[in-house]
Amino acid sequence: SITNNISVYLRENTEDSANASSGNETVKIIKSFPSFLNKRKEDIIDYMDTIGAGENIVIIGDGNIIVKQSIQYGAQYVTTQKIFIETDGEIKKIPDMNGWSRKDVEVFAGMADLIVIYDGMGYVSEQSIGAGEIFTAENNTITVKLVV
Fold first, then answer.
1. Rounded Cα–Cα distance for residues 18 and 10 (Å)
2. Tens digit of pLDDT at every position of the chain (148 positions)
């Protein structure tokens, strides 16, 4: 089963860090991130939930099969990082970017073919296209306001 496979993988590829960057939460470092390409998006959702990072997945597209992932196969992954996956679906929606770093916005924009206009520095506090709105190749420019 997928749960059994995830458990075995985690035992072999995870090390815990007692010093978390945000409060008392434990941050896990995955030594070698698995590939989810051509797998169901539910597989990565289950995996990320298992490692305690389920809230850090951003899904691009409304499909069921993963065609791209932002963390490369074999790369180190820290459970506080966002991971972006693109599915085989045609419909793409803007996520709520509030609190995202500029780097997170850049990764999302690169994968989603989105043009971003940045206003300021720091973290996203406002975005010109609302969360949940569909964007297309013709309507693919967003402005984000960043604050420290």
1. 17
2. 565 565 555 555 555 443 344 555 678 999 999 999 999 999 999 999 999 999 999 999 999 999 999 999 999 999 999 999 999 999 999 999 999 999 999 999 999 999 999 999 999 999 999 999 999 888 899 999 999 9
Closest CA to 6 of 58, 55, 42, 57: 42
Would you tell me how many other CB atoms lie within 10 Å of the CB of residue 33? Answer: 19
Determine the residue type at 108: F
Two tokens at 56?
């850090």
User: What is this structure's pTM?
Assistant: 0.82
How many DSSP H helices and E strands does the chain contain? 3, 11
Q: Are 44 and 64 in contact (CB under 8 A)?
A: no
